């Protein structure tokens, strides 16, 4: 309905769609990659995007059909309140009902969504123009008031928002017109549109407090939502993106047991089994009619070595452990190859600010032994806490095994998943953490490495790092930012008490009948936004 | 008269036990580290955010007061609302309880007659190869971890043969549909609970078969089938009913593994979720239901013993 | 005419734990003519039940009919197919089990069980079957014949159950009825009426019967011919009169000898000056909560007794009379509600906990069922050592020595020391039970039915032992029994208990030879005698007394026997508590009737003591 | 009955089933005791054979999902399966029997209190209980053992109480009381020895349940600390291998089954198979 009025800024004409258009017009792949790289994207990333765009071009979307999707969690904590979302199932579900102001594309660049456009003054005062003619599922029109309500509620502790820390710097959120919102920040942040593209900042209707059903502007309407059981989404015929979505209905259920989830896929009970462990990927690939959808993203498991506690405050012990990580073994044994080797810093190669110049730290037992001897902790038990039934546990076990070879006595403490994040992670000198992909280098560094952050995992304090972080955030020139982020990566690699052996891929399994999936590295199933992009081949 | 008094006494005792359970569960959950706010906020639980949310949820009140409020609510028929998703507990539990009862009833309908049949036949043919094979099979099946049994079942019948569904749904439109969706979970559960019932039926029946009145019945020319069904079984009903009750009582709360593997929306998973998210009103409500179910089953078993024993029924 | 039953060369074997087969009966051969009653008599283990069961083609678990021919009414029982065998059982051959209380299905109504046989076979409609059953109930003199069938087994008495079982057996008009010790578990008074009922029913129908029993006197009343069994083999077969008067086999002779009355132990002189060892006054005891000085379920009412050092007091009464409770109260296991007890003049506390160890030691109780009185987990040595250590604090070696002496004392070999109670025979268990009590070196031994579960011969030996111990150790005994013969053999004083009331108390001589209280008289008259025809000689009045059941008098102070008593005086007995009077022969009697009245009444029914004389003659001849 | 009293032999022959049971149980007990010393590799060592390797001469039971030698993991795990389960079972039966005796002999409010508490504990699903305990106290070995023990105390209590009530009514208890023996002596010397056998039978059944409880715990991700794992956990962590019927998932499952069958044969045989506790 609105195609004709706003042709220039429809999402089809950005990123992949843009590239698809270019390809259609006869541009060569090499040209495109060079073009994307010059726009600041790592070459590897650029080629991935071009490749997937080429694949997508070969297929034409079809309308109709219903699918059943099995995600990896399901509990009474399931919610359609964007502020309370807590896991990937929630994100996946909310993206079927809501839209955000912005949307992150395959290179994690923010693109306009419910905001037609956005502008800033010194990265401190931001103005968002809200798209006209968008309607909520109940028929009421989207206005600036809804946006203000959706954003401002995160700041109220009673809301229980998981994104409160991100919302607090938005000092003022005001409607400056029926379709314009102004956000004044406490300090400059060039990445605000990125933040607003994350799941928690999806837009809801003004005054919504009852979240037993979801009323949004998204591609599907909420027909049924039973926490811990399932949700049924039916096509929104009035969706503002013309022609979308393709499916008539999506039923989302949670099957926490991964074997059961895969079995449900293989028996034909579901079409998608989200978040499959690498061990199971083998099985999917040998079955005809099924495929693994890999999203190379920046998620990682890390050894957290607190600088404020013994024995982990000992720098030699930290170095010993960093050198003890057999990254290749972890990549192959734990992740079956669905991972890339990391270098004890958190920015992964798909990120536009990844610093390729940093030398790779190798698996070096001799060096580890040397540092261990110097630390004085040889043959004393070193407890490392890790979570049961997770790849963290597998990694810990491999570390433990490598330690036996050099006289390091690692005592792996397996802790239950229940309460792990509140009671174990960072609460002992040595723990394992697991960090989901984040939309920007700034968010990642701010959350987990800034000296005064609640989740400064290793209690690492570096004035230089903090300084760089603030400067880089305010910087709008990409080249200068890249240089600063490069230095920060080097600092973390050398000084921080964090060992990051590999970045692992997110794997989803699906029937090959399901088409249209493209990787967006914020999370599985197209950064959770698969619902408006996929179709079912008849 | 005798029975009415007994029932009344038992119901009072049951209520007392419920109270004990609620206190124990409350205290037990109170000593757990973490609370619902941390479950809601996850990794973003800053002390300030936690404090704010705690106040909003009423978790800042002292524990005894929270307990008494909950108890008062329960007595007036209001089990409260979930801390996690603010839905009324009744609304959360209602459909899940129905589902659990449905699965439990189906399982009971399959397992109990089968167990009785196997128990009775192996008692009649005691010491024979049949007896031994039944016994060993029952024990072997119960000793295989449930998740393995369920997974093998799914891979064999759902993935390979496509006879059954890998997921169980409580919605049943036809017999064929019910077989497809529920056969695997029902069988898995049945294998788990049958062994003890089979063994108990056999043991109780053997005790009776050794008694003088069975010998007498034999000497009256009563044929084996009638001997077992009319003469022996009613007198063994007490202990058998007890074993059945004890095993069935686990079908509401103790089937977490089956619910997870077959993604069946039942009460056990709800209870485990509630514990993990420290959703106290929900934990309490589930505990009450499990306890009440246990009491009711045991009471039913005792009634069964009394009805089958005139010595207790009529003076 | 061919006999109905022909058994020849019968051998039944049992398989033991090691899988080896041993014979339990062998070379059994006899015939039973139509209308004849044949008795199988023998001690336990003689194989009499095994033989009886084989007539129904049945052998118990672990046993097998190995050899021989069994023909009933022309059918070869061993050759029958299972279905034919099922038709035979309860059809041509019916069985009346020893303990009707155990042999009736507790969860079914009596009528359903009685008519099951004919209904199963489709012989009669339900209405006809019930009508026939009611006729049989009447014929067997069951009370309320029209309604008794609606009851459950636990609602009727043992004697009635036994008759109901006979009715069940007779329902199909069988050719042969096998009675397996049908009266053994009953009280004497009940036994009389049941025996009478059986005999009438069998005679009227001219039923052929096999009557299994260990009791010659009972057999003498019912059987035409007797088969004497011992250790699985036949000792002697003969007509009843021949067996009783001229037994050829030494074993049969010894059986008869066991029936001979023992010489009366001399009554210890009543020396009033010496304080009795145990003195009990106004004892009231029972179960349940105490309310207004009375227990909720009173068992003993106002019991007085005295036991002098070295003397033996016999306490007799039917089951439920409170005999065992009396022993428990004296031992302190059940504290008396009121009343006074003195041991050697010293006041004895009612409850165990308040008694001193020395007091506990001086009174020892020997329980009725040696099976349950010995801890099955303890060896004989351990059982006997414990009192030695507990009361006397003996050293280990001293204990071992004393244990051996105790075994000597009760005539047991020292080889039994390591045995567990389950590995002992009934008689051995009773002796160990006795030895344990003797280990305490008590002054008073309370013996509760110690011989009740034993065979006649074994029981007689235990009685001999007790008599010896009394004279050797100077023990005082309280000997509780339902069996007058036993009491007569052991005791110099006797007390008759009925429903918790002492009815007659006096020297053994006085009470046993000339019981004057109507109840004591009934008891004495109910003891079967070896004389054939004894059963028929029993007076109808007494039979009525035997038949009627106990019912509570209006007040606990009234005479409890009132509902059964033939001599009751209306307006007196149901109005005032009976007085206790000392009669001329030396007994204390609780009755409203005077001595003269009672003597007059008894002579009308025929005195019991008169019947004892011919019996003595028979026994003398037997020896 | 006056005849057919079977002649009891002083010494009984041990039936074949019991012999098999004894052999199986002894075999596993030996593994539990010496397994770790027999294992070719340490429990966590990753051998060079890749995940889910089939049986071979080098790795007789194949490898697990991380490529560790299964034989070594089974041998190391024996101690945790047999040991933990046995310890927990024995503790449960000790506590249950003690409480049962106490309740049966004392009666009154003590009995009422313990019985109520037992009912309450029985009615809470084991895994839910385990979850709470583990959340509160972690998953150290003592916590696991205690938790499994506490879970099965009520069952043991119910049986012991019923047994003790029956035995307490026997005449030999009256004899001991009449002798003046104290409660402690009566419980210990007179009642307890007669309960041992049924309690042992019960212990065998409970042992099976504890093994299953531990494997259920590992389903929820709780249980023994790595690199060790009990057999249930071995099944669980290798369940993925079930698609290729990897020995890593089959072998531990069979091991559990054989262990429980062995124990069942043993106790069934000992109890003469018809003296089971009917309660």
H and E order of chain B: HHHHHHHHHHHHHHH
Helix content of chain A: 25-40%
**CA-to-CA gap between the ends of chain B?**
11 Å
CATH topology of chain B: MetI-like fold
Q: Supply the number of structural domains of chain B.
A: 1
What percent of residues of chain B are in strands?
Answer: under 5%
Count of alpha/pi helices of chain A: 18
- Specify the number of helices of chain B: 15
Largest sheet composition of chain B: none
What is the CATH-assigned architecture of chain B? Answer: Orthogonal Bundle
CATH homologous superfamily heading of chain B: MetI-like
CATH class identity of one domain in chain A = Alpha Beta
Sequence stretches where pLDDT stays below 50 over 5 or more residues of chain A: 1-14
What is the second-level CATH architecture of one domain in chain A? Roll
Question: What's the CATH topology label of one domain in chain A?
Answer: Dipeptide-binding Protein, domain 3
- Net shape of chain A: globular
Rounded average pLDDT of chain B = 82
- Computed structural class of chain B: mainly alpha
By CATH reckoning, the class of chain B would read: Mainly Alpha
* Major beta-sheet overview of chain A: 10 strands, mixed
What does this structure look like?
The complex is a heterotetramer of chains A (538), B (315), C (623) and D (279). Helix content of chain A is 32%, strand content 21%. Chain A contains 18 helices and 20 strands. In chain A, helix 10 (315-324) runs antiparallel to helix 12 and helix 16 packs antiparallel against helix 17 (478-495). Chain B is built from 15 helices and no strands. The relative contact order of chain B is 0.14. Chain B has one domain (2-29, 95-314): MetI-like fold, CATH 1.10.3720.10. Chain B has 315 residues and is mainly alpha-helical. Helices cover 78% and strands 0% of the residues of chain B. The longest helix of chain B is centred in the middle third of the chain and has 36 residues, at 89-124. Chain C is built from 25 helices and 22 strands. Mean pLDDT of chain C is 83; it is low at 607-623. Helix content of chain C is 37%, strand content 23%. In chain C, strand 21 (580-582) and strand 22 (588-590) form a beta hairpin. The A-D interface holds A 258-259, 277, 279-280, 283, 329, 333-334, 336, 387-390, 393-394, 396-398, 400-401, 404, 412-419 and D 42, 44-46, 51, 65-67, 131, 134-135, 138-139, 220-223, 225-227, 237, 239-240, 242-244.
């Amino acid at each position: 309905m609105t195609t004709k009025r706003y042709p220039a800024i429809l999402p089809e004409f950005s990123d992949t769609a843009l590239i698809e258009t270019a390809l259609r017009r006869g541009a060569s792949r090499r040209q495109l990659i060079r073009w994307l790289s010059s726009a600041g994207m790592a070459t590897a990333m650029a080629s991935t995007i071009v490749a997937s765009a080429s694949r997508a071009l070969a297929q034409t979307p079809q309308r109709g059909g219903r699918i059943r999707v099995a995600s990896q969690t399901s509990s009474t904590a399931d919610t359609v309140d964007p502020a309370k979302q807590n896991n990937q199932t929630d994100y996946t579900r909310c993206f079927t009902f809501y839209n955000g102001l912005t949307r992150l594309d395959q290179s994690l660049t923010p693109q306009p969504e419910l905001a037609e456009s956005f502008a800033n003054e010194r990265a401190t005062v931001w103005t968002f123009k809200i798209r006209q003619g968008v309607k909520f599922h109940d028929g009421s029109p989207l206005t600036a008031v809804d946006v203000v309500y959706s954003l401002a509620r995160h700041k109220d502790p009673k809301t229980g928002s998981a994104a409160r820390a991100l919302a607090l710097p938005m000092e003022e959120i005001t409607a400056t017109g029926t379709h314009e919102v102004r956000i004044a920040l406490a300090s400059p942040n060039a990445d605000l549109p990125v933040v607003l593209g994350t799941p928690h900042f999806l837009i809801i209707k003004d005054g919504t407090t009852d979240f037993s059903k979801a009323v949004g502007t998204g591609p599907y309407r909420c027909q049924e939502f039973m926490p811990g059981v399932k949700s049924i989404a039916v096509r929104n015929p009035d969706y503002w993106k013309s022609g979308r979505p393709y499916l008539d209905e999506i039923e989302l259920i949670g099957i926490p047991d991964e074997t059961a989830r895969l079995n449900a896929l293989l028996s034909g009970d579901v079409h998608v089994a989200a978040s499959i462990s690498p061990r199971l990927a083998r099985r999917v690939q040998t079955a005809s009619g099924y495929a693994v959808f890999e999203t190379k993203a920046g998620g990682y498991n890390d050894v957290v070595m607190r600088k404020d506690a013994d024995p982990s405050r000992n720098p030699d012990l930290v170095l010993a452990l960093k050198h003890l990580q057999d990254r290749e073994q972890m990549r192959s044994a734990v992740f079956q190859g669905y991972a890339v080797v990391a270098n004890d810093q958190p920015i992964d190669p798909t990120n536009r600010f990844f610093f390729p110049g940093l030398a790779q730290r190798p698996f070096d037992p001799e060096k580890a032994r040397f540092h261990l001897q110097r630390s004085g902790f040889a043959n004393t038990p070193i407890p490392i806490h890790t979570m049961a039934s997770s790849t963290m546990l597998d990694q810990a076990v491999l570390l433990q095994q490598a330690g036996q070879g050099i006289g390091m006595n690692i005592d792996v403490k397996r802790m239950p998943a229940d309460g792990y994040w509140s009671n174990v992670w960072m609460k002992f000198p040595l723990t394992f953490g697991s960090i989901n992909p984040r939309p920007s280098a700034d968010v990642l560094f701010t959350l987990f490495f800034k000296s005064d952050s609640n989740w400064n995992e290793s209690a690492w304090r570096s004035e230089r790092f903090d300084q760089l972080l603030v400067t880089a955030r305010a910087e709008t020139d990409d080249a200068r930012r890249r240089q600063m982020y490069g230095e920060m990566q080097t600092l973390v690699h050398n000084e921080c008490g964090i060992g990051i052996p590999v970045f692992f891929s997110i794997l989803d399994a699906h029937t090959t009948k399901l088409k249209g999936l493209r990787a967006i590295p914020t999370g599985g199933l197209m950064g959770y936004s698969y619902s408006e992009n996929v179709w079912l081949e008849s | 008269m005798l029975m009415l008094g007994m029932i009344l006494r038992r119901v009072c005792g049951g209520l007392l036990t419920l109270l004990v359970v609620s206190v124990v569960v409350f205290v037990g959950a109170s000593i757990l580290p973490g609370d619902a706010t941390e479950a809601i906020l996850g990794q973003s639980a800053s002390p300030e955010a936690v404090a704010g949310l705690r106040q909003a949820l009423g978790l800042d009140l002292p524990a005894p007061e929270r307990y008494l409020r909950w108890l008062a609510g329960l007595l007036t028929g209001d089990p409260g609302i979930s801390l996690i998703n603010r839905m009324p507990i009744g609304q959360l539990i209602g459909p899940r309880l129905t589902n659990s009862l449905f699965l439990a009833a189906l399982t009971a309908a399959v397992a109990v007659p089968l167990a009785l049949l196997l128990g009775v036949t192996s008692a009649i043919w005691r010491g024979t190869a049949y007896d031994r094979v039944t016994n060993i099979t029952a024990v072997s099946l119960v000793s295989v971890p449930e998740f393995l049994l369920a997974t093998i079942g799914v891979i064999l019948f759902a993935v390979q043969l496509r006879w059954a569904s890998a997921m169980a749904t409580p919605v049943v439109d036809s017999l064929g549909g019910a077989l497809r969706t529920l056969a695997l979970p029902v069988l898995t559960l049945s294998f788990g609970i049958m062994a003890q019932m089979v063994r108990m039926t056999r043991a109780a029946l053997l005790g009776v078969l050794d008694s003088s009145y069975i010998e007498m019945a034999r000497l009256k020319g009563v044929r084996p089938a009638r001997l077992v069904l009319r003469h022996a079984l009613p007198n063994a009903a007490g202990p058998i009913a007890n074993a059945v009750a004890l095993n069935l009582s686990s079908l509401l709360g103790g089937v977490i593994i089956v619910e997870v593997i077959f993604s069946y929306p039942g009460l056990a998973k709800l209870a485990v979720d509630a514990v993990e998210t420290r959703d106290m009103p929900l934990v309490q409500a589930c505990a009450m239901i499990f306890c009440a179910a246990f009491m009711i089953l045991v009471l039913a078993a005792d009634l069964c013993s009394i009805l089958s024993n005139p010595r207790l029924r009529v003076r | 005419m061919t006999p109905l039953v022909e058994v020849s060369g019968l051998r039944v074997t049992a398989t033991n734990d090691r899988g080896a087969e041993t014979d339990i009966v062998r070379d059994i051969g006899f015939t039973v003519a139509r209308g004849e009653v044949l008795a199988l008599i023998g001690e336990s283990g003689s194989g009499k039940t095994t033989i009886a069961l084989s007539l129904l083609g049945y052998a118990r678990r672990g046993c097998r009919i190995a050899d021989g021919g069994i023909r009933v009414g022309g059918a070869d029982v061993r050759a029958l197919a299972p279905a034919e065998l099922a038709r035979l059982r309860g059809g041509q051959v019916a069985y009346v089990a020893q303990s009707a209380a155990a042999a009736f299905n507790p969860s079914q109504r009596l009528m359903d069980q009685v008519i099951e046989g004919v209904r199963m076979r489709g012989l009669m409609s339900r209405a006809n079957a019930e009508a026939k059953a009611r006729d049989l109930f009447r014929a067997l003199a069951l009370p309320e014949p029209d309604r008794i069938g609606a009851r459950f087994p636990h609602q009727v008495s043992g004697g009635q159950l036994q008759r109901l079982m006979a009715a069940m057996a007779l329902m199909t008009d069988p050719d042969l009825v096998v009675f397996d010790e049908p009266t053994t578990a009953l009280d004497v008074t009940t036994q009389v009426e049941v025996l009478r009922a059986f005999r009438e029913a069998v005679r009227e129908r001219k039923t052929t019967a096999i009557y299994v029993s260990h009791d010659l006197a009972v057999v003498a009343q019912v059987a035409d011919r007797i088969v004497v069994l011992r250790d699985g083999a036949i000792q002697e077969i003969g007509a009843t009169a021949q067996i009783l008067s001229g037994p050829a086999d030494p074993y049969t002779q010894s059986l008869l000898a066991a029936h001979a009355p023992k010489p009366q132990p001399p009554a210890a002189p009543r020396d009033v000056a010496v304080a009795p060892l145990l003195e009990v006054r106004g004892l009231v005891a029972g179960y349940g909560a105490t309310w207004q000085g009375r227990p909720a379920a009173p068992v003993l009412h106002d019991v007085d007794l005295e036991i002098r050092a070295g003397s033996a007091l016999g306490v007799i009464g039917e089951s439920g009379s409170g005999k065992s409770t009396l022993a428990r109260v004296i031992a302190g296991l059940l504290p008396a509600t009121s009343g006074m007890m003195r041991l050697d003049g010293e006041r004895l506390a009612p409850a165990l906990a308040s008694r001193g160890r020395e007091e506990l030691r001086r009174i020892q109780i020997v329980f009725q069922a040696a099976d349950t009185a010995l801890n099955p987990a303890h060896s004989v040595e351990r059982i006997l050592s414990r009192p030695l250590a507990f009361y006397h604090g003996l050293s280990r070696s001293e204990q071992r020595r004393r244990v051996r002496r105790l075994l000597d004392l009760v005539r047991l070999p020292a080889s039994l020391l390591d045995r567990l109670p389950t590995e002992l025979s009934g008689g051995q268990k009773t002796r160990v039970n006795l030895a344990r009590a003797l280990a305490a070196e008590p002054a008073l031994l309370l013996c509760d039915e110690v011989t009740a579960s034993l065979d006649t011969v074994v029981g007689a030996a235990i009685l001999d032992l007790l008599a010896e111990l009394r004279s050797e150790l100077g023990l005082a005994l309280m000997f509780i029994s339902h069996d007058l013969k036993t009491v007569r053999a052991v005791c110099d004083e006797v007390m008759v208990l009925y429903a918790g009331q002492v009815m007659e108390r006096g020297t053994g001589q006085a009470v046993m030879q000339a019981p004057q209280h109507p109840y004591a008289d009934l008891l004495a008259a109910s003891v079967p005698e070896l004389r054939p025809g004894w059963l028929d000689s029993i007076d109808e009045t007494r039979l009525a007394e035997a038949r009627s059941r106990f019912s509570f008098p209006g007040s606990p102070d009234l005479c409890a026997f009132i509902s059964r008593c033939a001599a009751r005086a209306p307006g007196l007995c149901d109005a005032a508590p009976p007085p206790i009077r000392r009669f001329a022969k030396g007994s204390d009697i609780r009755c409203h009737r005077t001595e003269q009245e009672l003597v007059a009444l008894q002579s009308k029914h025929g005195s019991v003591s008169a019947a004892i004389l011919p019996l003595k003659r028979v026994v003398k001849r037997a020896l | 009955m006056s005849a057919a009293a079977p002649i009891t032999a002083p010494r009984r022959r041990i039936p074949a089933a019991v012999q098999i049971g004894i052999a199986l149980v002894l075999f596993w007990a030996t593994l539990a005791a010496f397994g770790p010393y027999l294992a070719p590799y340490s429990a966590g060592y990753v051998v060079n054979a890749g995940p889910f390797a089939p049986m071979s001469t080098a790795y007789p039971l194949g490898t697990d999902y991380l490529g560790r030698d299964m034989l070594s993991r089974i041998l190391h795990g024996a101690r945790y399966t047999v040991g933990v389960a046995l310890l927990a079972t024995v503790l449960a039966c000790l506590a249950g029997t003690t409480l049962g005796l106490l309740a049966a002999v004392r009666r009154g409010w003590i009995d009422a209190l313990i019985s109520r508490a037992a009912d309450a504990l029985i009615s809470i699903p084991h895994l839910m209980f385990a979850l709470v305990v583990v959340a509160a106290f972690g998953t150290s070995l003592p916590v696991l053992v205690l938790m499994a023990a506490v879970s099965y105390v009520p069952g043991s209590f119910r049986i012991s109480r019923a047994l003790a009530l029956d035995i307490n009514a026997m005449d030999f208890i009256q004899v001991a009381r009449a002798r003046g023996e104290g409660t402690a002596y009566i419980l210990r010397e007179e009642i307890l020895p007669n309960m041992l056998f049924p309690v042992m039978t019960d212990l065998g059944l409970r042992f099976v349940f504890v093994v299953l409880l531990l494997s259920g715990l590992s389903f929820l991700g709780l249980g023994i600390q790595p690199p060790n794992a009990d057999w249930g956990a071995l099944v669980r962590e290798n369940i993925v291998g079930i698609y290729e019927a990897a020995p890593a998932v089959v072998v531990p499952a069979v091991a559990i089954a054989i262990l429980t069958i062995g124990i069942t044969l043993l106790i069934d045989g000992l109890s003469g198979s018809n003296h089971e506790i009917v309660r």
